[in-house]
């Protein structure tokens, strides 16, 4: 990238200590690391974040873990020991932010709850991430992404008319992680002006409910449950995958101008512009089956490449139905130089640049840490001697 200046990362100088596992908290802290924060990940001795063991797809390392944990430091500590908790208290004493998504109440039971951590450090920012929130009837329930998608009703609007499904990526986890990321940045900004930190609660349930605003309002005020439409859309037509000579292409006409462009410039059928069944989106939705039939009659005359070019030239929204191999080879990534190499304990792997693109500096993409890789370094920074560290390791307090 051009005009890059060193040392201008947005979160330079910010230290984050994270007690995290799986997806929701790790995706928040990975973005904090991408933005320049120092992220110290506290893990269990021996096992670590259980996402390390989801699979072994990336040179023997779990794909989730590679995705979510680059740029962090791993410290292994037994938090069930008084010595381990003491070490962590010292570590947190030097932190700006604490993020945690352990089981409900776990941090409080360890004596590491937000109130206790901030008693002498009101400037500390603590983000507690939960499945269902810190109160209410479900507060103590286990909450995995699929369960939250089901509980919030996201599954009820996802899938085909015959089958409800969860999303193909952990949407509830990611939603919570993104709100945690936003909350940390907002709290840091406020602290710059007031000197006061914050305690923030982010739940997967609440984050997913926020994403469901549109179908929720339809139900509340029109008594309408959004139907599962597959690739289609309950309120827009034509909006679906349509056949071509050699495959399918997705077309999404959002308004009547788009319909005019589709039928005149792509299909050469100006007579369809004011057709009594197709002239407006409301009419096209009402006559969805006929609309789809007419569109399909025309799209199947073209091969996918030709139709894609014609739709683009006419300004009609369309997309190819790509798979993961198509994504990896996508020119929108390669021609924009979005791929980088990052280090792992098993060697270098490919990774895509963070979505936040600063024009003056490229965000770092640090190594994926081995379990406990930075324990000695961090403990030494805290003032512990080599002999003390060796004693803690012998006693099983640190890994």
UniProtKB/TrEMBL annotation:
It comes from the Bacteria. InterPro entries: CoA-transferase_III_domain, CoA-Trfase_fam_III, CoA-Trfase_III_dom3_sf, CoA-Trfase_III_dom_1_sf. It holds the Pfam family CoA_transf_3. Gene3D superfamilies: Crotonobetainyl-coa:carnitine coa-transferase, domain 1, formyl-coa transferase, domain 3. Keywords: Transferase. PANTHER family: SUCCINATE--HYDROXYMETHYLGLUTARATE COA-TRANSFERASE. This is CaiB/BaiF CoA-transferase family protein. It comes from Rhodococcus jostii. The lineage of its organism: Bacteria, Bacillati, Actinomycetota, Actinomycetes, Mycobacteriales.
């Amino acid at each position: 990238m051009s005009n890059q200046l060193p040392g201008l990362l947005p979160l330079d100088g910010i230290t984050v200590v994270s007690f995290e596992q799986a997806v929701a908290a790790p995706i928040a802290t990975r973005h904090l690391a991408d933005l320049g924060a120092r992220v110290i990940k506290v893990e269990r001795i021996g096992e670590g974040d259980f996402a390390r063991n989801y699979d072994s797809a990336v040179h023997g390392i779990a794909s989730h873990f590679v995705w979510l944990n680059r740029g962090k430091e791993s410290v292994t500590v037994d938090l069930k020991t008084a010595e381990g908790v003491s070490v962590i208290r010292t570590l947190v004493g030097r932190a700006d932010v604490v993020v945690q998504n352990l089981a409900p109440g776990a941090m409080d039971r360890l004596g590491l709850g937000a109130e206790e951590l901030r008693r002498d450090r009101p400037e500390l920012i603590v983000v507690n991430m939960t499945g269902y929130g810190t109160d209410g009837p479900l507060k103590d329930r286990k909450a995995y992404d699929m369960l939250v998608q089901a509980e919030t009703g996201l599954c009820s609007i996802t899938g085909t008319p015959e089958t409800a499904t969860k999303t193909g990526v952990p949407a509830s986890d990611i939603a919570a992680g993104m709100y945690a990321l936003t909350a940390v940045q907002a709290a840091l900004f406020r602290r710059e002006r007031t000197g006061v930190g914050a305690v923030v609660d982010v739940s997967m349930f609440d984050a997913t409910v926020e994403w469901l605003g549109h179908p929720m309002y339809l139900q509340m005020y029109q008594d309408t449950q959004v139907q599962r439409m597959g690739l289609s859309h309950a309120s827009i037509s034509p909006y679906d995958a349509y056949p071509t000579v050699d495959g399918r292409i997705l077309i999404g006409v959002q308004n009547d101008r788009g319909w005019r462009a589709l039928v005149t410039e792509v299909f050469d059928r100006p007579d369809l512009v004011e057709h009594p069944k197709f002239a407006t989106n409301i009419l096209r939705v009402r006559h969805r089956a006929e609309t789809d039939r007419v569109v399909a009659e025309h799209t199947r005359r073209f091969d996918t490449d030709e139709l894609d070019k014609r739709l683009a030239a006419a300004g009609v929204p369309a997309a190819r139905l790509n798979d993961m191999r198509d994504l990896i080879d996508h020119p929108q990534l390669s021609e924009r130089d979005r791929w980088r190499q990052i280090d792992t304990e098993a060697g270098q792997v490919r990774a895509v640049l963070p979505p936040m693109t600063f024009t003056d500096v490229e965000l770092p993409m640090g190594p994926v840490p081995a379990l406990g890789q930075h324990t000695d370094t961090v403990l030494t920074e805290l003032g512990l001697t080599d002999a003390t560290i060796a004693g803690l390791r012998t006693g099983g307090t640190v890994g």
